[in-house]
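FORM 7B: Structural annotation worksheet

SECTION A. Query
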Amino acid sequence: MSSYISRLLKAQSASKRLISNLTQRDGKLSSLLRRLGLQRLGEAAAAPGQRPISTTQVQKSALIEDEQLVTGIQKREMLLAKQGCEDPWGFSKVIRRGSGRENDPTVVPSAFDARIVGCLCLDDRLPKWMWIEKDEGPKRCECGHFFVLKNVPPV
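SECTION B. Predicted structure
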């Protein structure tokens, strides 16, 4: 019996098997364990069908707001929507052709160096697509209308 106690005192932390062996015996040993403060550990390890479980307090998690999760362009879109701009990209409005002359071309806004434009020429059902470049002058469609690119700040 003294070998169990000496092993228990030498060990950094008592093993569950050793404690369960010690707590199964009654008498002087259980009183010694009580004095050493190991009785509660022994009872937890010796209880049949139960395992000691260690728990820590955890704060109840709350739902995270979308503004905290989003990044990049989506975050800028959300901030613009809060400020009242529901269509930051200008998709909902169609750019109407102006006079379309070379000295008064239809202005197409873009935050990039080029943009693809579709021109609905006269009685055609399908648009005629063309690229408009930043540094080139007004570009002429097949129907004779001119378009030019205007730089706008990005969203």
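SECTION C. Observations
The CA atoms of residues 13 and 110 lie 70 Å apart. The longest helix spans residues 72-82.

SECTION D. Sign-off
Analyst initials: ____
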